[in-house]
Amino acid sequence: MKKTRNVLFVSILALACMGGGCTVKAVGDPKRPITINANVVIDIRGLKKTAANIEDMISEEAS
Amino acid sequence: MKRKTWKVILITAFLCSGHPWILRAESDYDIKQMTPGIQDAFKNRKARYEELQRFKTEGLIGEDREGFVKALRPSPEAEQLAGRENSDRGTIYQAIVDQNHLGPDGMGKVKTAFAEVQKEKTRPGDWFQRPSGEWVKKQG
Asked: Which of B24, B88, B102 should we substitute to test contact with A (largest number of A Cβ atoms within 10 Å)?
């Protein structure tokens, strides 16, 4: 029972890591610089918070 | 090694991996370095804020779906004001993209976020553009 639980835990963790947003890809001759393609994950809620803070600051300091 | 130790190692590795689930919880975008250009953009926007509100109330300027303002009727004064405001907004948006390393899709996302905030902040009677492109007057 304990073993099954551990296997399940490691499997879920491995799947979560594989589902990540970063892809690192090496292209071409290993002696030459590699190309890294990374997916940047942008948090829209975080951006909206930043936008709201900036717009609040502009309107408050203007008045 | 004990099983518990392995669990701790795996969880620590996961947290340090920069997984999007973790990043999403910590994302905090900001203007980290205030260059003279960015400072000017803020200063200009504050200085023209009241004038811009007046033009919006008169229905001459509206908030578009890309986080910028647009002259809604032919008026050289409104067009000039919108042009200056958009130039300063563009400076601020670009600073957020650059300083937070948001990548090629970053500008689109920043514009969308600001457009949504502007729409929320728009006062009743002012005009804004819906994501579909339709211009509507905000209801009270």
From this structure: B24
